[in-house]
Design a protein that fits this description.
The radius of gyration is 19 Å and the shape is globular. The protein contains 10 helices and 15 strands.
Amino acid sequence: MKILISGGTGFIGTALIKYLSSFPHDLLLLTRGESRMELCGALTLKYIHWDPYAHGEWEKVINGCDVVINLIGKNVFEQRWNEQVKKEIRRSRIIPTLLLADAIGRAEHPPGLFISASAVGFYGDRNDETVTEESAAGNDFLADVVREWETAAVATEKHGTRVAIPRIGLVLERSGGIIGKMLLPFQLFGGGPIGSGKQFLPWVHMDDVVRGILYPMENEQLHGVYNLVSPNPVTMKVFAKTFGSILRRPSWLPVPEAALNILYGEGAKVILSGQKAFPERLRSAGYEFSFPDLRPALMNLLG
C-alpha cells in the first residue's frame, strides 16, 4: 500500500512508523523540514516538505495514495495554557485537517481511506459516567476543539473516501506521555496519584494505539468515530497504586491540584478530569487488544 502520514515524527507517529517498517508499504511522510529519503528497517521513507497551514506542491502526492493518516496536532501539555497556546492547540489540528481533506477531494485518484486522529477529550469531564461512541460531546474548550477537528475530517466523506476517526485515550509508553512524567517521582519515592485520584483514566497501551489506528485498513466495515481505549479503564488512584507496586515504590504522595494549576493553568482541568470510556465500536468490529488489562500493560513497559 501507498500510505501518506502527517505527524509521523511525533509521539504516536514514531511508534506507528516503526511498526509499519515491518511491512512492504510505500511510506510518505509530510514534514516541515527539507524533503529527503531515509531508511527505516527494510523500508525507504520518503519525506515530503509541507506547510501544514498552506496549500502547496505537497498536495500532489496524495493523488494515488491508498491511505492517508493524519496525526498532526500540538501537544496540549507542552506548556502552560494561555489564550495564545489555546489558539495554537486549535489551529494545529483544524487547519491541517481541512487542508488534507481538501487535497483528497481534489485528487484525480483519491485515497480509499482517511484515518484522522481524535481524542476522548471529546467527551469532556464525565466523572464515573460510562462513555461510549454514542455519548454526547462535552462543553469545555478541548471538547469544542475535538468536535471541530472531527468535523473537518468527516468532510472528506463527500468525496467518496471512507473516514475513520480513532478517539485516542491516555497513551501508555515508557518514553513519554503520562509514564514519562510519573516515572522519576516514583523512582525517587515521591510518587502518587494526580489530583483527587477519583478520576477515571481511559488508558491504552501504545501497541494497541498503533494497531487500533491501522485496524480500519484491514476491516473495511470500520468507519466513523471509534474509541481507541482499553476496555478496562481505572481510576487515577488505582493506576498510581499499580504503577508503584510494579516499581516497588510507595504511592502515597498525591500531586495537588494547586501545583497543576501553576504548571498548566486552564490546561490542568484536562489532567484532573476523567472519562470512563469504552471501545464499543472497536470491539464490535472484532479488534482484539494486546493489553486489555492495566497490570500486564505496565509490566510490559516497566518490568
